[in-house]
Amino acid sequence: MALLEVRDLKMYYRTLRGHVRAVDSVSFDIERGKALGIAGESGCGKSSMAAAVLRLLPANGEYHGGTIVMDGEDVLHMPEEKFRQNVRWSKMSMVFQGAMNALNPVHRVGEQIVEAILQHEEIPREKAVERAEGLLDLVGINPKRFGEYPHEFSGGMKQRAVIAMSLACHPSLIIADEPTTALDVMVQAQILKAMAELRAELALSMMLITHDLSVIAQTCDSIAVMYAGKIVEYGSVYDVYGNPVHPYAMGLVESFPNIHAERSAVRSLPGFPPNLLAPPPGCRFHPRCPLADEECMTEEPVLREVAKPGHMAACHKAEIVQQGVGIWER
Amino acid sequence: MGAVAAKLEKKQFQHGDVIMEVRNLTKYFPVRLSFIQSLRTDDPPVLKAVDDVSFDVYKGEVLGIVGESGCGKTTLARTILRLTDATSGAVALEDVDIMKLNPLEMKNLRRKMQVIFQDPYESMNPRMDVQTIISEPLRIQGLARTVHEARDVVSSVLADVEMIPPEEYMSRYPHELSGGQRQRVAVARALALDPDFIVADEPVSMLDVSIRGEVLNLMLNLSREKGVTFVYITHDLATARHICDRIAVMYLGKIVEMGTAEEVIRNPLHPYTTALIGAVFVPDPTHRGISEVLKGEIPSPVNPPSGCHLHPRCPYTMDICREAEPEFLLYEGTHQAACHRAKKARG
Q1: What ipTM was predicted for this assembly?
Q2: Residue in A with minimal Cα distance to B283
């Protein structure tokens, strides 16, 4: 049994003009100790999905069905108080986007970690301080800096501190939403390297949300590509990068420049994502898809197995894409 | 793909083709001190954003200036356009020293040099339509008195940036355009005066990856078809490798390595460049491995390390690196670097 099983999850935002279907019938699994990458353009619903899994919806967010099962327990329908006590932070925690804003500027960094521990566990303060120092050490920050304020830390160190905080209660799953987007390339590499080592050491599972496919290629075991609130391709990173079967995933993979490859034109996907208030009928990608025909405009494709076991795609034309035809050649 | 492949052919540049010469350019910013601190010091500290930088830009090339945030690449861009005045040094555009021009002469010269800013959401007036935005430089330069007089130019530059048919886009407002389209309007605005020289400061970093290619390929096409020279400022070595003819790598206000894109990426001479290349993630799960990354983060440019600025982070530091600043030397071909180790290796 997988650590986290999400089935048909639907989360819509209520607006004056109707429902924005940010997460629309999404299903995926995260195995113990494995990492799943969620990729997609801005506005495709990937951050909304993280919020939905952690039950941290904004005021206008609503669940419209689905289940989230962690360790065999339905965590979506349990009372909020129980979820807060037993699940959030102690079983699944989060590394937020932009560490600069995730730390409270008027509290000492170490104290913020201690606070996270004491919120969830009844242990003496000294024990919590001891653990917080150990956590700082674990992520590569000198524990002597326990009493410093966030402004005394550099961007990379703040992000490390936020990671330490997410580990405070020994969770089994970490949800990281663009953990390195605001950081420089060199610091990004340091942080992701540290996260990979921590995951191996603590047997952590991870859900990594990012627009950067190269980060997922380097750190995750499987990948879900989202488009307009839906997962359009899902499978192991080797299958999806090696042989993408959805036109969108294929275009996205190809639009990433590889620094070691021969010099070539940088690809792009023409057009832009649809308005989620009124997504196009049929396949939501059809207005941008070079293969779209009558069927794509009317019939919504279901996520089905293509090519290999466990390699799924929601596309009527997956068999054509699978042959590796250069559908994005112009 | 044939046409694109042809465009990617490396251009050969002759020495006579220089469009801009930058010599010993420095830009220091004063550091604010408290009143008491200012009384105690005779030598007030400065932030050396650009520190004694010299290079040439060739006509029709795409020159990439690559570095982490805080390395001074944006200040360099602003200084060579004289959007900010240099502390010392010279910048010559087609043999005219732009640092010595008076404001009127400078205004006339601005026809030749244009800029594309990073954020297409902030760099356009939301109350102007596309037509007005693009014709504004023409009106400022006195080449058109009204929006309508400029219509033909607007229409042709919109066609140049592949917004076809132009009539459909002219009356739209920025909020009606996608990010990629906005950035193309920014390129069109830069093209309206038919400039020879365009500085693009992180033109795609705010865009989704799927549409970055649009804007980058557009820049490449314009340089090849119209002979426009681009200076592409970026932190992204992977895109620089694919669209630039030459690349300059900056660290703490100095250019540490420069050469053709092939020379710099295939055979980096400076350990900083090597680390920067190693830190770029490859979108391919079968080639895993984050290679040696430099420790720590970029130090403050107010009080940079002695000798070679990289020495506290460099894995190969020798005694000389702490004491003497390395010279910027020419190695094979056009490949230049400032590193004691590279010099020693050459003998």
Answers
A1: 0.82
A2: A214
